[in-house]
Automatic annotation (TrEMBL):
InterPro entries in alphabetical order: Proteasome_assmbl_chaperone_2, PSMG2_sf, Rv2714-like
UniProt-annotated stretches for the region Disordered: 274-299
Biased composition (Basic and acidic residues): 274-285
Keyword Transmembrane: no
Protein's UniProt name: Proteasome assembly chaperone (PAC2) family protein
Gene3D superfamilies, per the entry: PAC-like subunit (3.40.50.10900)
Length: 299
């Protein structure tokens, strides 16, 4: 039974979800949602019953001390609400329902139905699921982010790719399918993480997902220290490549393949998005400084 007595009426709500596990290479997607929670002080209003969905031998609970009292935190999925003011919503307020947790071990259909039950009760207009996968992409270039949907009309309206994937899937794919059956518009944003530097965290990939989310939902997300963390990650990856000649050669081969392929990041449309994002951040309340950085082929 879903009880939402403590949740106020929401304004044009969109649900944004990410799940640790198979769909979350380098924890990039779950870290992006965690950033939204911290930035906009998300208020948790619900948590799914851990015993219904998780194998505790796979995802073990954590024991910790709280003022000398021993407590247990169970693996679960939590829902929170963030309220976005007009200053970050391009002149209009709106709310996000954030879903962050762990890919369930069992009863995936019930899991998705429970999440969709919350979406229905809260009047959610669209679901955006963030994911990250390992790919043959060089760390020296912009992080590729693919935006896909199974909804033909939504693909046309928002200029998204229509999903043609066939093969094994994770909870992201199952949730998107459940949304389609429920008649709820759903989009998946996928960041490609270099497989040779796949250890978490990857703030550069998280940042790319947040930028794409900004464009999709017409938001201006305060980024805090994330850009600096992404630059530090880049330096660390550069050092790794410099210390290993085989890695350096492999990265160079990936760069050549990437640079000779079609580069949507260097298109006029992408550059226009970068400039619009920069203009949105020029107000005194913005957290970015300096001129816009147009992410072209050189990364």
């Amino acid at each position: 039974m879903i009880e939402l007595e403590g949740v106020p009426e929401l304004v044009d709500p969109v649900m944004v979800a990410a799940f640790e596990g198979w769909n979350d290479a380098a924890d990039a997607a779950s870290a992006a949602v965690a950033h939204l929670e911290r930035t906009w002080k998300g208020e948790v209003f619900a948590a799914l019953d851990a015993e219904d969905y998780y194998d505790f031998q796979v995802n073990r609970p954590h024991v910790w001390l709280d003022g000398g009292v021993r407590r247990v935190t169970w693996p679960t999925t939590r829902l929170s609400v963030v309220r976005i003011g007009e200053e970050h919503g391009r002149g209009r307020a709106r709310d996000l329902v954030l879903v962050r947790g762990i890919e369930p071990s069992m009863r995936w259909r019930s899991f998705c139905n429970e999440i969709l039950g919350f979406a229905h009760e809260l009047g959610v207009e669209m679901v955006v699921v963030l994911g990250a996968l390992l790919g043959d992409t060089p760390h020296t270039r912009p992080v590729p982010v693919t935006s896909v949907t199974a909804d033909e009309d939504l693909a046309r309206t928002l200029s998204l790719e229509e999903s043609r994937y066939e093969g094994p899937t994770g909870i992201v794919g199952i949730l998107q399918e459940a949304c389609a059956h429920a008649g709820l518009p759903a989009v998946s944003l996928w960041a490609a993480v270099p497989h040779y530097v796949s250890q978490p965290p990857n703030p550069k990939a998280s940042l790319a997902l947040l930028h794409r989310l900004e464009d999709l939902l017409e938001l201006s997300i305060p980024l805090g220290e994330l850009p600096e963390d992404a630059r530090a990650w880049q330096i660390g990856a550069d050092q790794l490549a410099a210390e290993d000649s085989e890695v350096a050669e492999y990265v160079q081969a990936l760069e050549q393949a990437r640079d000779t392929a079609e580069l949507p990041e260097a298109s006029g449309e992408a550059i226009a998005r970068e400039f619009e994002r920069y203009l949105r951040r020029r107000d005194p309340g913005g957290d970015d400084e300096g001129p816009p950085h147009f992410r072209g082929p050189a990364g």
